[in-house]
Amino acid sequence: MLQPAVFKLVIAKYSDLLPPLRAVVEDYFIRKGVSDPRAEAVYFDAMLDGVFLNFVMNPEGFPLERIKELIIERFK
Length: 76
Fold this sequence. Notes:
mainly alpha
């Protein structure tokens, strides 16, 4: 994803999926009553990007199960 050519391929393939997924996440935060659901959805997306990148870069040293627990605790 960090390489421009790869990014273009991913966007071309999945760009139609992103808006509905973002809408679902934003709707979740609307139902949770957060003050800025759009910003919370963007934050959530960025946090997942970071988890993904860190896990890919260091799968053996990344505490994936604990991170999953923390995400569930934070966003339930």
